[in-house]
Amino acid sequence: MLTIFNVINNMKFALTILAILAVISPLEAFTVPRTGNGALADELQKFVDLIPIKEIIEIVHRYKTQDIEFQQVLEYFQSYEFKTLITEIESIPEWIHILNYAQSAGLDAYYLVNKVNEYLHLPSLKPSSHATRNIGGIRGFLDEVEAVVPTDQLKSLYLERVANSAVFADFNRMLGSPIAQTLVNKLCASINFNNFLTKAKNYGVRLDIIRVDMEERLGLTVPC
Fold first, then answer.
1. Nearest CA to 40 among 94, 96, 102?
2. Which InterPro entries would you find in this protein's record (predicted)?
């Protein structure tokens, strides 16, 4: 759902979900799953290789066992409301189109989606801890993750790959395409998605930065 550049600029919430799934599900966080010629997966692997996954997982473990707010988010990920949101997203044709595009470009997108579904006890898609204290809450967790992510290197790699990799540049254009805009519009019209955004904002996620990046970097309009 997020653009590549806004993930680079404000990847904190995406990394939260990635790191959580890396710890509490069998997600292979170190290797981007490949399919076909693997071209897009190979490009994305360059970004993953810059992210200190082990350090992030250590942060996740600490927050998972010691932070009340973080534990509440883990509980929310297992709630009926969040599962309904994921099911709703996976029923949007534009989302399926983007998954299929990524799949055909060499990224096993369905493998990643189904790892999330497995954790949430949701059906697979087919291609077509004890609370003790609050040590920083979600905002503190995101700040710690941000501190270990090499943002400048990721930005430089992004610009370099857009300029020199046809498959990555095409994928970036897909994320700013009319199909992506339709997906954004449908999500912004969703009550479940807006409830999710409200929760994220209340936890300190800087949604305004994500929205500005999506609008300025890819020309998308974000009405929510």
1. 102
2. Ins_allergen
Q: How far is CA 186 from CA 87, 92, 98, 159, 222, in A?
A: 14, 8, 14, 29, 10
pTM: 0.60
Assess contact for 220 and 94: CB atoms under 8 A: no
- What is the rounded distance in angstroms from the CA atom of residue 81 to the CA atom of residue 83? 6
- Report pLDDT for 135: 65
Residue type at 186 in one-letter notation: K
Q: What is the pLDDT of residues 159-183, one digit of tens each?
A: 999 999 999 999 999 999 999 999 9
The pLDDT of 75-80, averaged and rounded, is 89
Residues 141/16, Cβ–Cβ less than 8 Å:
yes
